[in-house]
Design goal:
Radius of gyration of chain A: 35 Å
Distance between the termini of chain A: 62 Å
Distance between the termini of chain B: 79 Å
CATH architecture of one domain in chain A: 2-Layer Sandwich
CATH class of the largest domain in chain B: Mainly Beta
Number of helices of chain A: 8
CATH architecture of the largest domain in chain B: 6 Propeller
Number of helices of chain B: 4
Largest interface: A-B, 59 and 51 residues
Helix content of chain B: 10-25%
Oligomer: heterodimer
Structural class of chain A: mainly alpha
Radius of gyration of chain B: 27 Å
CATH class of one domain in chain A: Alpha Beta
Number of strands of chain A: 3
């Protein structure tokens, strides 16, 4: 492109633009890098009634959990973390839609045991749409006279059917608890315990209304820079830094130091143990170049040693890996 | 357009390269800046030196302890608290027992006499917290010089821990004042900087004032009111001999030596005016530096000998001026509203000028930078006057006259103003002048 000096417009503009860009690059080359932000965790609101539904347990599960836990609080197994790390950034899929009505033709599973006469009033209640981890006695459901379904149907056996009911109860105890999807029966079909039993033993995944919260772990994630392990946030690190610097102020005796016309700021490095005491020895990042610098360095080293053991507030103690190592610049300007 | 496309490519490539070079890996070290500390003195344990003569050993420790305490930099720990009272000088101390009493530094020492009657004094300075020896030295001297050895050891410890030159092995010349207030006998005296070892240099038949040390020799210049006009004299401390500096008509006063010790600078009163003159001590030639109808007095050389600071009322009130060493234009450097400045003295480090300031009825001793900035008052109140610098430029002595029936007393202050302590003299004392380091 020929540069016409009589019409310098475009090349001049390009040159100025390039110059500005270069200046900006240089000017901003020294900005601090954005610190790594803590990873965001998907959160879904859960009402207290849904929470109690979730904690009731599941009849199909072989092992009975000792106490009901909110899913989000479960301590994760290692594989789970790694797997979720890879997927962590994906959106948690929304829960599968719950069928408002029962499936029109539920599976008819043969009942292994002979069942005595079916109840005289086969008016089973409307299907139970909600996930009901509590053991529901389908037989009892069938026995119910009252049509409206209750979330937790209470057993109300008529006195005449005690014996078969007792047997059924026994059977049902041994059988795994029903899946909510399997509980509802079509009103028209006759009550078939065998089919129901078949349903009960099926191992379909229960549907849940709540999303699977990312399971948190109390120990830090090994290896991944963006793991889901708990870490100190930036403001927490600043807070702890402030606490440690305040202690160092009390320990750093500057009497007699002369500094130099420019400020001296030797960097001192040290590591701490979990109880806040020194791990190893503090050291200066660079050797001193003259007696004045050496005096300031030594006063700083004495300060770190005097302050040990540092007082670390309890809320920071679990995050030891985040505050193990320190590199502090002790800035001394002649106090005149 | 080609221009824009290539520019964009360049910028994109540049940004990628920048990212590659400056992108730093995540590293879990907490870094930060500490800007403040405190000014508490360093807790130090000074054990009694071991050796054949326990009385002398205890005295050496006492002089060192007193020196270090007076500097304000150290806090000697009471000997009663020591757990390990007599550590083995040649072995490593039991640092745990010194940490237990919160000592950060430890001095141990030993004195031994050899066959010829000379005394060998040794010391070690330990860093208790790191368990390292920081300094160690030995001196062989005549037994009578044990005080000087104590001061030299004090300087060694002070220098090692502050990075600054010491000031303990020095003398101070001052005006000793005795007798009733209206009939004071003023004679020159010399003492160690801690107030010990005082002896008199003049008899007291002449009023002797404003003594000043030579930087290079054992000589003191001073002014004496003898039979005629007051005159400047030079006195040799060792021999006691003195001579008159020049033979000027009229009063000569406030003499000082040049940094090379070859000249004396002073002011000469002629009628109502006073001007500044120098005299070469060998050739006896005099040079006039100022020529004003004002009172120019109290001159002091910069340590490199290139400039002079002095007091003048040429602007209407007493202020401080800086001028080249051969005269010429003088620049005013003192500017506080309504204040009068006098007795300027240039620090041996060259970084500050000390002065007496009078403002609103109070007297203060202060320092300022040679360009007049950074003025800082170190002590205020009473009649404070006449600062003199320690050779390391970190301490000053001055005198204070509290008025009434009492007389003047000498005090020491540090450049931060945090340390201020009296200097003991046998009687009243004024006009101190600090010698260079003796060793």
């Amino acid at each position: 492109m020929k540069i016409k000096w009589s019409e310098p417009g475009i090349p001049l503009s390009a040159a100025i633009h390039a110059g500005l860009l270069l200046a900006t690059l240089i000017a901003f080359s020294s900005t601090t890098k954005f610190e790594e932000q803590p990873e965001s965790i998907a959160v879904e609101m859960v009402t207290s009634s849904e929470l109690s539904q979730m904690t009731k347990g599941d009849k199909t599960v072989k092992v009975v959990k000792p106490d009901a836990k909110i899913k989000a609080d479960k301590v994760a197994e290692e594989e789970l973390i790694k797997q979720e790390s890879a997927d962590a950034k994906k959106d948690i899929p929304s829960p599968p839609a719950k069928p408002p009505e029962p499936p029109p033709a539920p599976e008819q599973k043969p009942d292994p045991k002979p069942v005595p006469t079916p109840p005289p009033a086969p008016t089973p209640p409307a299907p139970e749409p909600k996930p009901d981890p509590a053991p529901i006695d389908p037989k009892l459901d069938g026995l119910k006279q009252a049509p409206p379904p209750k979330p937790e149907p209470k057993p109300q056996p008529p006195k005449a059917e005690v014996d078969p009911l007792a047997k059924l109860l026994e059977q049902d105890k041994k059988a795994p608890p029903p899946k909510p999807a399997d509980v509802p029966k079509p009103p028209t079909t006759a009550f078939d315990p065998a089919a129901l039993q078949k349903l009960l033993v099926s191992k379909e995944t229960p549907q849940k209304t709540a999303s699977t919260a990312t399971e948190t772990s109390k120990s830090s994630a090994a290896g991944t820079a963006s793991g889901t392990a708990a870490k100190l946030s930036l403001s927490q690190i600043d807070q702890l830094k402030g606490i440690i610097l305040k202690q160092l102020e009390q320990c750093w005796n500057q009497a007699g130091l002369i500094g130099s016309p420019n400020a001296l700021h030797p960097v001192i490095r040290w590591s701490l143990r979990e109880d806040g005491s020194l791990d190893g020895v503090p050291s200066a990042a660079e050797p001193a170049t003259d007696p004045a610098m050496r005096a300031v360095q030594e006063s700083a080293l004495r300060a770190v040693r005097t302050c040990s053991p540092f007082s670390i507030p309890a809320q920071f103690k679990p995050y030891y890996a985040d505050w193990k190592d320190w590199a502090i610049s002790f800035t001394f300007k002649d106090s005149l | 357009m080609n221009w824009n496309r290539s520019l964009r490519t360049i910028v994109a490539v540049g940004l990628c390269l920048y990212g590659a070079v400056f992108g730093s890996p995540v590293y879990a070290v907490i870094s930060g800046d500490l800007f403040n500390g405190n000014f508490k003195p360093i807790p130090i344990a000074i054990t009694d030196f071991v050796g054949a003569d326990p009385a002398m050993n205890a005295q050496i420790s006492a002089v060192i302890t007193n020196n270090l305490k007076r500097s304000g930099v150290f806090q000697p720990i009471d000997k009663e608290a020591f757990i390990d009272k007599t550590p083995n000088f040649d072995g490593t101390p039991n640092f745990a027992s010194w940490k237990a009493i919160n000592a950060q530094a430890l001095i141990t020492g030993r004195v031994t006499k050899d066959a010829s009657g000379k005394v060998k004094t040794e010391f070690r300075l330990w860093d208790v917290l790191s368990g390292q020896q920081l300094a160690g030295q030995q001196y062989v001297t005549d037994p009578t010089l044990w005080r000087r050895v104590s001061h030299i050891i004090s300087d060694g410890v002070y220098t090692r821990l502050t990075g600054e030159k010491g000031f303990f092995d020095t003398h101070v010349v001052f005006v000793d004042e005795t007798g009733p207030k209206d009939k004071r006998i003023k004679r020159l005296a010399i003492m160690d900087q801690d107030g010990a070892n005082t002896r008199y240099l003049t008899k007291g038949d002449e009023l002797a004032v404003t003594p000043r040390f030579s930087p290079t020799s054992q000589e003191v210049a001073y002014m004496a009111f003898g039979a005629g006009d007051p005159k400047v004299y030079i006195l040799n401390i060792d021999t006691g001999q003195r001579e008159v500096v020049g033979n000027f008509p009229g009063m000569t006063f406030s003499p000082r030596f040049s940094p090379d010790g070859q000249k004396v600078i002073m002011s000469l009163a002629q009628g109502a005016a006073s001007n500044i003159y120098t005299m070469d001590l060998r050739s006896r030639t005099t040079t006039r530096l100022t020529d004003t109808p004002a009172i120019d007095t109290s001159p002091s050389y910069s340590p490199d000998g290139s400039q002079i600071v002095f007091e003048s009322d040429r602007g209407g009130t007493q202020q401080i001026y800086v001028m080249g060493a051969s005269g010429g234009a003088a620049k005013r450097i003192s500017f506080s509203d309504g204040a009068r400045y006098s007795t300027p003295v240039w620090s041996p480090k060259g970084d500050y000028i000390a002065f007496t300031r009078q403002k609103g009825g109070t007297f203060a001793i202060g320092i300022m930078k040679p360009d007049g900035s950074g003025e800082r008052i170190l002590t205020e109140g009473f009649h404070n006057e006449g600062p003199t610098w320690a050779p390391n430029g970190r301490y000053l002595m001055f005198f204070r006259d509290q008025g009434g029936a009492a007389g003047a007393r000498i005090f020491m202050v540090d450049v931060t103003g945090r340390v201020e302590i009296p200097v003991p003299t046998p009687a009243f004392g004024s006009d101190p002048a600090w010698s260079p380091l003796l060793n």
